[in-house]
Design a protein that fits this description.
By secondary structure, the protein is α/β, with parallel strands linked by helices. The protein contains six helices and seven strands, in the order βαββαβαβαβααβ. β4, α3 and β5 form a beta-alpha-beta unit. The longest helix has 29 residues.
Length: 254
């Protein structure tokens, strides 16, 4: 779609698009499913948590699997092709965190974080690009982090994994832009989710306590990040590729 002043609002829509969203059972992933559906896309929602099945309806099909496994990426793309006949959008959202000093981080912990965040994004991007090349183009939106651009204490494994996601995004943009495939990443600041559930007693309150370090004076909410994802997935962002888009309340402006 060629963007003009007359059709700029329409370009935000996703009618007829087929999207895959990983890590869709809760938090940002679940909100992205709702945001893309509201704009007209149909969605394949995947997660390792069986509760992702709650999202199943006429416009959403679900898949349960570990994103770090090659067979999961292959099967998820196959499901999208079987049910909807094409893949237009991939949102690589599935992720895990680890908050430990470098000297306290085990090799197994490092590998576990890298497997989900970096390997999982790579596998799904590879299979999505394969489908998009044959389909005439598409859009990949990866979820990176402020930790991919600035250093934060006690995040060595997480930061390295999100740095890998950011660079993967840029390489896809350069390699496949000529084939009509765009790739961008969102780099959120601290967002109030349940990603720390089981790690700290009150995960949402812990995350909310970081509000003061953001120039806006608060942490982000999942719907605010989902809006950025939806924009990047839409034709309205048609001249954007290879970008790492900060949605961080001004944190990296400091």
């Amino acid at each position: 779609m060629q963007i003009t002043p007359e059709n700029s609002l329409a370009a935000l829509g996703l009618e007829g698009r087929v999207a895959i969203i990983t890590g869709a059972a809760r938090g940002l992933g679940r909100t992205c499913v709702a945001a893309l559906r509201a704009r007209g896309a149909v969605v394949v929602a995947s997660d390792c948590n069986p509760s992702v099945g709650e999202l199943e309806n006429d416009g959403v099909v679900t898949f349960i699997g570990d994103v770090s496994l090659e067979e999961t990426a292959i099967a998820t793309l196959a499901l999208a092709m079987q049910r909807f006949g094409r893949v237009d959008i991939l949102v690589n959202n599935a992720g895990r965190t680890l908050n430990k000093p470098l000297l306290e981080t085990s090799a197994d912990e490092w590998d576990a974080v890298m497997a989900v965040n970096a390997r999982g994004s790579f596998l799904h991007a590879r299979e999505a690009v394969r489908a998009m090349v044959s389909g005439g183009g598409g859009v990949i939106v990866n979820i990176a982090s402020i930790a991919s651009t600035v250093a934060l204490k006690e995040t060595s494994a997480y930061a390295a994994s999100k740095g890998a996601v950011a660079q993967l995004t840029k390489v896809i943009a350069v390699e496949y832009g000529g084939l009509g495939i765009r790739a961008n990443a969102v780099a959120p600041g601290v967002v109030e989710t349940d990603i720390l559930e089981g790690i700290v007693p009150d995960s949402r309150a812990t995350l909310a306590s970081y509000g003061a370090v953001h120039p806006l004076g608060r942490v982000g909410q999942v719907h605010e990040i989902a809006e950025v994802v939806a924009f990047l997935a839409s034709p309205a962002s048609s001249f954007m590729t290879g970008a790492i888009v900060a949605a961080d309340g001004g944190y990296t402006a400091l």
